[in-house]
Specification:
The chain is mainly α and 58 residues long. The chain has a domain of 33 residues. It is 79% helix and 0% strand. The radius of gyration is 17 Å and the shape is elongated.
Length: 58
């Protein structure tokens, strides 16, 4: 949400450093999410996310 707000503000106000900050925040969020996903299933014994959702639906 923060990256989206910064990006929209940067676009509407035509401030390039604000758009750049929004992209950095967005990429940082993606990196943190990927890191969290990698460390949560690091032992290899946990089922994939799709398999977990299938069990919930049953």
């Amino acid at each position: 949400m923060l990256a989206a707000a910064l990006g929209l503000a940067g676009i509407s106000l035509e401030i390039s450093w604000l758009r750049t900050t929004a992209l950095i925040v967005l990429m940082g969020g993606f990196a943190l999410r990927a890191l969290a996903a990698r460390t949560s299933g690091s032992d290899g014994n946990e089922p994939a996310i799709d398999e977990q959702e299938a069990k919930i639906d049953e």
